[in-house]
């Protein structure tokens, strides 16, 4: 019997080591983060963010992450009972978000994560904490482009694989010329040099790009959104934290912290989020009834 138990224990230990070796690496924020998962005030919480979206979720090297999403995440974590040094930041690219939640790599994701019915088949959402809309980024001195209809005969940049530019061509400006680049930073470079006339994606992402020190004062968001993207807090299916996260988002807005961190993240861009989207039916919090 002892031999059998020892064998089982050995197998369990080996399995644990294997899982540790195979788990994707992540960079912690202000501490090791612990094992997260569950009740506030525990060992830590693992939060998935972007590392490559200035103004939203951005991290260089071993520095602390910055941006609006990061500040929302810190606030929510604090309301759940976790101090900032208990947060483990996990880089979570768009293509890996559902997998990260299902595989237990993170406890929540706050990373311009749009709430959709398709995604809700695999994960749950709290929020939204922000409602974005597709918009245009143009040069600061451009007064001609006021919306997607004004793009006929213009050059429009978006990233490879995105459907946002094609949507404009299909629905608003048949004569627009589409230019694809590997990332939005490249699109902004094209915009500055005059190779394109506008860049398109979600308005707050554009504002974050325009707010970087190297782009300060060069660009502006048109401010005429023409779609709706409800950014939610992704959580594992069946997670019990949904209601508490919704309460935290409500409190953050009511006490003014939400507006403060949003203003700081988009300072100098002339960007104002849509009050209609962020205070209307689209901003209604997700039900936590399951």
From TrEMBL:
Matches recorded under SUPFAM superfamilies: Periplasmic binding protein-like II
Superkingdom per UniProt: Bacteria
Protein keywords: Signal, Transport
Biased composition (Gly residues): 30-45
Annotated GO biological process: amino acid transport
Signal sequence, renumbered to the chain: 1-23
Boundaries of every Solute-binding protein family 3/N-terminal domain copy: 44-273
Region (Disordered): 23-46, 266-290
Gene Ontology cellular component annotations, sorted alphabetically: extracellular region; outer membrane-bounded periplasmic space
Membership in a protein family: Belongs to the bacterial solute-binding protein 3 family.
Protein name (Swiss-Prot/TrEMBL): Amino acid-binding protein
Species, as recorded: Brachybacterium faecium (strain ATCC 43885 / DSM 4810 / JCM 11609 / LMG 19847 / NBRC 14762 / NCIMB 9860 / 6-10)
Lineage, broadest ranks: Bacteria, Bacillati, Actinomycetota, Actinomycetes, Micrococcales
């Amino acid at each position: 019997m002892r031999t059998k138990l020892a064998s089982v224990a050995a197998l369990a230990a080996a399995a644990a080591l294997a899982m540790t070796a195979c788990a994707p690496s992540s960079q912690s924020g202000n501490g090791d983060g612990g094992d997260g998962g569950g009740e506030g005030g525990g060992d830590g919480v693992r939060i998935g963010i972007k590392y490559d979206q200035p103004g939203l979720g951005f991290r260089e090297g071993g520095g602390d992450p910055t941006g609006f999403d990061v500040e929302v995440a810190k606030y929510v974590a604090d309301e759940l009972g976790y101090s900032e040094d208990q947060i483990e930041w996990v880089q979570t690219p768009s293509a890996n978000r559902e997998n990260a939640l299902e595989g237990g790599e993170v406890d929540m994701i706050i990373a311009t994560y749009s709430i959709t019915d398709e995604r809700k088949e695999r994960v749950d959402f709290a929020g939204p904490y922000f409602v974005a809309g597709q918009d245009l980024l143009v040069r600061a001195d451009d007064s001609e482009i006021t919306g997607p209809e004004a793009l006929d005969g213009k050059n429009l940049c978006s990233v490879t694989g995105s459907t946002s530019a094609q949507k404009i061509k299909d629905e608003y400006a048949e004569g627009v010329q589409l230019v694809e680049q590997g990332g939005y930073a490249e699109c902004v470079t094209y915009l500055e040099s005059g190779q394109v006339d506008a860049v398109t994606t979600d308005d707050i992402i554009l504002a974050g790009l325009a707010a970087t020190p190297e782009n300060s004062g060069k660009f502006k968001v048109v401010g005429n959104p023409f779609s709706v993207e409800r950014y939610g807090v992704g959580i594992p299916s069946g997670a019990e934290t949904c209601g508490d996260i919704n309460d935290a988002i409500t409190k953050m807005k009511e006490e003014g912290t939400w507006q403060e961190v949003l203003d700081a993240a988009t300072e100098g861009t002339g960007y104002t989020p849509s009050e209609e989207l962020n205070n209307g039916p689209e901003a209604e919090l997700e039900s936590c009834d399951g």
